[in-house]
Amino acid sequence: MRVFRGSSNVTELQIAARKFEPAHRKGPTVWLVGVSHIGETNYYQTLQKILDGQAVVLFEGVGERPHSMLRSENASRVSTENNSRSGEDENGFSLQSNLARSLGLAFQLEAIDYDRPNFRNSDLSIREIRQLMSGERELPSGPSTNRLAQAAPNAFEGLLQIMDGSSFAGAIAQLAVKFVGSSPKLQALTRLAMSEALGQIKGDISQLRGLPPDMKQLLEVLIQSRNARVVRDIKDILPTLHADKSVAVFYGAGHMANLEAQIRRDLKYRPVGELWFPAITVNAAKAGLTETEMKMVRSVVSWQLQMMGQ
Questions:
Q1: Number of structural domains the chain divides into
Q2: Where are the alpha helices (DSSP H) in 150-207?
Q3: Percent of the chain at pLDDT above 90?
Q4: How far apart are CA 10 and CA 7, in angstroms?
Q5: Which of 62, 78, 196, 281 has minimal Cβ neighbours within 10 Å of its Cβ?
Q6: Confidence (pLDDT) at 152
Q7: DSSP 3-state of 76
């Protein structure tokens, strides 16, 4: 992730798709396609074209039902709150979906068509994550990381409740999201603040040292354990593909630094190119934002991240 300022009026949150090839032999290409879970409609249309051109797409999708079913339910806004509380399965997407609407953006799960023969879910289910948290099973990456998982089960359950709005904090978050959508100018200011924050931390909030220890450990587990599943799936798929084919990993941008380190180290792949796409755009002139307001938002975001990094 990066923030790109093409002019004094336009600010873009850009996300890369990075291409990797074997360092010392011929073999299939691996694309790491980072994504923002909310963004412009044309951003997702561009990603869809890239993904449709891959032999295999390993996508992010926590849950136990087919991803297409989750997408359909979100599109029709059918509530799954009871399922989430029972722990059988959950989508946890209501907050993100509402945030996207309030900001005049699209939600990834509703904008991307996952009903493609080359798309494969490569993620852990909620049940598997809970088992990791409780210590019932070992992390895919091994026992050295397993101690992290056992440290933050309460934080994980709290995060789920915020996402589905079933907790007090989740209800407050939903109200805040609705308030953001009440004013076009407030929409633009929030989009700018989000772009600046995500761009500065590269989408990975686990790197902020000022986070509470249990939340920091939870985020590290959610990245490391799920990435381990992805790398294992890549290893299984590569021998089945011809050298001129490619496999894409379609995951949140916050996962990409760790994924890149693993495929460099474990698969001996090296980066050979990248493409950058604007996920969120803020046009100050169209939104009626002054230069002073833009500078204020950037200053506040930088100050907050600096404080959280201490």
A1: 1
A2: 153-164, 168-180, 184-201
A3: 44
A4: 5
A5: 78
A6: 55
A7: coil
